[in-house]
Amino acid sequence: MKPVRVKDAVEVVYSEERWRLLQRLRSRARSLLAALPEALLVGSVARGDVHEGSDVDVALLEPAPPSLVEERLAAAGFQVVVRELVQATPISTPKLYIHVGESEKVSVPLARLSRLEEEFYRFAGSISLRQLERGERVPGVNKRLLAVIPTARGHVEFSVVGREEEVARMLGVSADVVRDRVSALTRRDERGRTGLYLRLEIPAWESPEEAIARLAKRVPALREKLEGWL
Predict the structure, then answer these.
(1) Residues ≥6 apart with Cβ < 8 Å to 167
(2) Burial environment of residue 84 by CB neighbours within 10 A (0 to 12, 13 to 18, 19 or more)
(3) Which of 9, 44, 84, 142 has the most neighbouring CB atoms within 10 Å?
(4) Which residue from 133, 91, 131 is spatially nearest to 111, judged by alpha carbons?
């Protein structure tokens, strides 16, 4: 990797322990993506700025039947622990998060993602199975609104706030998605809560389709988003 020079950026040099942790998390991510090769690895494991509490987040960008996704995961040796049905706001696309370990989960959109929702994955940093196998890391923004740019020794980071246009160009996304995430994460920090419109746990023994259909009957915003799916 070429040296990175960004105004007001701080360099973070990884310890050997941190490099080993990154490799362990990437090995687990590789198994998940091998089962779902159309999916993307998203977040800190794609960027490289991992810590002991980092999750392995894998995301599908196209809607898929949850049961079919779970069958493919089971065939690869993964066991579903629990699922969460999440809708961030009444106008957001509902997603099912399938947890297959203490820190591994797969996000399945239940309807078409909006442009901003798709761009979010580039904003956070995302890579494909092929990129993961090549050992690539990509820039992205973490939940503390720090832009993280990988380097040979670790990464450099700087605050996104006030530099939204610059970050958008760097990540190849619209300034809209950067401003949207800055607004959403700033509100969350101020309120001290996630502010999710809907979050429901679905146990592993229950059919996800049946649970989602039942809830949609009671929640108009969810039912409207899933009209073509139910």
Answers:
(1) 141, 147, 160, 178
(2) middle
(3) 44
(4) 91
Q: Which single residue is written with the structure tokens 């105004």?
A: 7
The string of DSSP codes covering 104-137 is: EEEEEESSPPPHHHHHHHHHH-EE-HHHHHTT--
Contacts of 141 (CB under 8 A, 6+ apart): 123, 124, 125, 147, 148, 160, 167, 171, 178, 181
Which strands, in side-by-side order, build the sheet including 140-141? 10-13, 154-159, 146-150, 140-141
Per-residue model confidence as pLDDT tens digits over 5-52: 677 789 999 999 999 999 999 999 999 999 999 999 999 999 999 999
Residue 57's Cβ-count burial label (10 Å; 0-12, 13-18, 19+) is buried
Which of 56, 92, 93 has the alpha carbon at shortest distance from 73?
Answer: 56
Whether pTM > 0.85 for this model: the answer is yes
Query: What confidence tens digit (pLDDT) does each residue in 160-208 have?
Result: 999 999 999 999 999 999 999 998 888 765 444 556 789 999 998 999 9
Which residue matches tokens 């040099």?
A: 13
User: Tokens representing 77?
Assistant: 């040796």
